[in-house]
Design a protein that fits this description.
The protein is of the alpha/beta class. The chain has eight helices and 21 strands. The model is unreliable at 7-51 and 461-470 (pLDDT under 50).
Length: 470
């Protein structure tokens, strides 16, 4: 078992970049002052060069394309074309690639990857969520497809749209949303595969000055899967674009769960968020998918002047789980906070954190920091931590720190001296370790349910024997 926590405290540059893999981390705030906004350049499309392509990647892309309906909106087709082009020169990642040096993706590559099909009877999915709140705004997505019959969107304020790109009736909002498709720069291989294979685009649009009360819940359910002895790996590609105009505010809760049992499947999800001047987005993210699944998530954020973005994440599921977070600040007085807790509840658990903060020469008076804290609770568990700072400006305050250890014997002795058995004491200390992150979720009900979920996972796996971490 491996657990870690990371806290970057960043008053950052106009283009800091965070790449977060399967680690537990906590992060505080990123503020930018006196920042000269960056300029995004347009990318010219180049003709395809199939000879430079990875055959395995092309095979997946072609399978995904063949599974989708031929008709789609012009905006979605533009995204697919852009993603397809980037795949022509993007190989499958290996340990020789620095971002994947400690991440083994062979579980996916050795499987027979098949696109998840459109749900035929979504009403049979009664196991919506352990964190379900039927009274809140919510949109349900099963295997990448929006299911209106299981969603609750009544009560949205005027000026807010949540739904499929294809269902947008306002030309003004459609044209505004299409300005962000595709991105000026592509993400990694999995970002591109999502762009090729996403059956639709979920749009969350908040007009200028509009504030949404209460969180919007996006519930992702992986219903289609194979048993663990099968080589088949159904893949879904949900994609969400959030656009919050100047002065707007919204809270978003993403929750990823699986269907019944320990099925094998691959969720390859992308969320892109554009935050206007003085706007605010509060982002909660919970991942509790099957321990035989692959979960790969890409979150890309672009912040304008005086905007705020806060992420709180708890991730406990997946045989392979990876979250790439990329934040670009393009205006001054920008605040970004990242707080994450990951739990790998397995004796061979592996945790990887690769955090990179870039401060360019115009980002004077940037204040940035990272702190990663990790627990190794089994002798064969591993933690790989690589915090990075790339600073060109000369008037900044930037720092990073990391610690890796087992639970403290003094703390265990203190609890045992008060009549608490060793196993219960260990579980209590692990839960307390993650409490700093869990306590940042927006509602008390959600915090309590997440805490109970973590405790349930720890019950059968916390060892009686204490081992030292490396």
């Amino acid at each position: 078992m491996a657990v870690s926590a990371f806290t970057p405290i960043i008053r950052a540059s106009p283009s800091p970049s965070f790449t977060l893999s399967t680690s537990q981390y906590q992060s505080n705030f990123i503020r930018t002052r006196k920042v000269k906004p960056g300029v995004l350049t347009q990318r010219r499309y180049l003709p395809p060069i199939a000879a430079l392509s990875d055959p395995f990647v092309l095979e997946i892309a072609e399978t995904l394309e063949d599974s989708l309906p031929s008709s789609s909106s012009s905006g979605l087709q533009k995204l697919r074309d852009f993603a397809s082009e980037s795949l022509l020169s993007t190989p499958w990642p290996s340990r020789k690639d620095e971002p994947f040096r400690f991440t083994d993706t062979s579980f996916i590559k050795q499987s027979e990857i098949i696109p998840a099909s459109s749900p035929t009877s979504p009403e049979s999915s009664n196991h919506i969520s352990a964190f379900e709140d039927t009274q809140s705004l919510n949109l349900t997505i099963i295997d990448g497809y929006i299911i209106d019959s299981l969603s609750q969107l009544s009560g949205l304020p005027d000026g807010v749209f949540v739904g499929s790109l294809s269902s947008l009736s306002s030309n003004e909002i459609t044209n505004r949303v299409l300005e962000f498709l595709p991105s000026s720069e592509p993400g990694d291989l999995f970002w591109s595969l999502n762009g090729v294979g996403s059956p639709d685009l979920v749009v969350v649009y908040v007009q200028e000055g509009c504030k949404v009360e209460g969180p919007l819940r996006l519930r992702y359910i992986s219903n289609e899967g194979s048993d663990k002895v099968s080589k088949k790996l159904p893949v879904s590609n949900p994609r969400v674009l959030v656009v919050v105009e100047k002065g707007g505010e919204i809270g978003i809760l993403e929750e990823f769960i699986g269907g019944d049992g320990d099925l094998s499947y691959w969720t390859n999800s992308v969320m892109e968020i554009a935050i206007g001047e003085e706007a605010k987005v509060s982002h909660s993210y919970i991942q509790t998918q099957s321990l035989n699944s692959a979960h790969i998530k890409w979150t890309s954020i672009r912040q304008e002047k005086s905007s705020t973005y806060e992420l709180v994440e708890v991730s406990t599921g997946g045989k392979l789980s990876r979250h790439n977070v990329h934040v670009q600040q393009v205006g001054s007085d920008t605040i970004t906070g990242l707080s994450t807790f990951h739990l790998s509840a397995h004796s061979l658990g592996q945790v990887v954190f690769d955090g990179n903060i870039k401060v360019n020469r115009y980002a004077q008076q940037t204040d940035a920091g990272q702190l990663t804290r990790s627990l190794i609770l089994e002798p064969r568990a591993t933690v790989n931590v690589k915090p990075n700072l790339q600073i060109i400006a000369d008037d900044v305050k930037c720092s990073h720190g990391a610690s890796i250890c087992d639970l403290e014997e003094d703390q265990l002795f203190y609890l045992q001296a008060r009549g608490i058995d060793r196993q219960t004491a260990r579980k209590s200390l692990i839960v307390s370790f993650g409490a700093e992150v869990i306590d940042r979720f927006p509602t008390a009900d959600l915090r309590k349910k997440v805490e109970l979920h973590v405790k349930k996972l720890l019950d059968p796996v916390v060892p009686l024997k204490v081992t030292s971490g490396v």
